[in-house]
Specification:
The chain is mainly β. It has no helices and 26 strands.
Length: 292
């Protein structure tokens, strides 16, 4: 059962069930909801277990059920598989290290049967090291695309390159959209598209789209976010999934752990209220079990 939020709210978490959909422990009625996947219109039937969804709607006072107005799903990487380490539970894709666990949904091919150069689609969360903690790994048989999301580092405007994990993105011929005045900058969340796989860890981008990393929430809305602690700025301010600022207060309560357990890569589910600039003012921090 959900808890800690009510009224107009936004929830970010993997889809864990259907009827219509269950996200963050809340069962949302999706009749009439606007559904998008990667920004494109989609149907409720296109939503799958393990997809990380941002659901905006109205949640009942018990925090158990809601009516969704919008459901948006974004993948973190899709393209040809570079390497699989079954024993370690890791995947390499477009220069990104992807970590799976027993809760990761594989559709329809299990990790042990994935092979190099098959196209896969990965959803999940970023951790403190910039790795992807996968909630879903789906093999693709059609509509094969090459795309990867991440935060720009090592920008070299003169050379027209930047880094995403172990990938060098060559953007000198790319169409750039959504960038601030002055162009690309380190720290921006981007989605990079390409027509062909990387060559020698260099991806020739056809387009670079700067994304807004914040959950859609107005000040005073309920806000619930699952993910991994990626930065700790002070005893009361932290960051989850590299994009969600969290403010703790003396009234924040902790379940299955204590404030001392708020360390990098702690897996948490945080309920609260959206403050200024969509900061999540936490009423509850729930520590999720390792490997979940």
């Amino acid at each position: 059962m959900g808890g800690g939020i009510a009224g107009t709210s936004s929830v970010v978490a993997p889809i864990s069930g259907f009827g219509s959909i269950i996200v963050g422990g809340i069962e949302f009625d999706t009749n009439g909801a606007l559904v998008t996947i990667e920004g494109d219109p989609a149907q409720v039937s296109d939503l799958k277990l393990g997809m990380v969804a941002m659901v905006r709607g109205v949640v009942d006072p018990r925090g158990a059920r809601g009516v969704a107005q919008r459901v948006a799903v974004e993948h973190l990487a899709e393209g040809p598989l570079e390497a699989v380490d079954v024993a370690a539970g890791t995947i390499s894709l477009l220069g990104q290290q992807i970590i799976t666990n027993p809760a990761t949904v594989f559709d329809p091919t299990p990790l042990s049967q994935l092979v190099q150069n098959e196209y896969i689609e990965v959803g999940g969360f970023f951790d403190a090291s910039g790795r992807i903690r996968a909630t879903r790994v789906a093999r693709k048989f059609q509509n094969l695309e090459i795309a990867v999301k991440g935060y720009v580092v090592g920008l070299d405007a003169q050379a027209g390159t930047f880094q995403l994990g172990g990938l060098t993105v060559d953007f000198h011929s790319a169409i750039i959209t959504g960038a601030p005045q002055g162009g690309l900058q380190n720290g921006l969340l981007v989605e990079v598209g390409a027509d062909v796989p990387p060559v020698g860890s260099v991806l020739s981008a056809t387009d670079v789209d700067v994304k807004n990393p914040s959950a859609i929430a107005d000040e005073g809305d309920g806000l619930k976010v699952e993910g991994f602690v990626t930065q700790i700025s002070s005893p009361t301010v932290l960051e989850v999934n590299r994009n969600q600022r969290v403010q703790l207060t003396p009234k924040t309560r902790f379940e299955h752990g204590s404030p001392g357990d708020l360390v990098l890569d702690a897996h948490v589910d945080i309920d609260g209220v959206a403050g200024a600039d969509a900061t999540l003012v936490a009423t509850k921090v729930d520590f999720l079990p390792p490997g979940s």
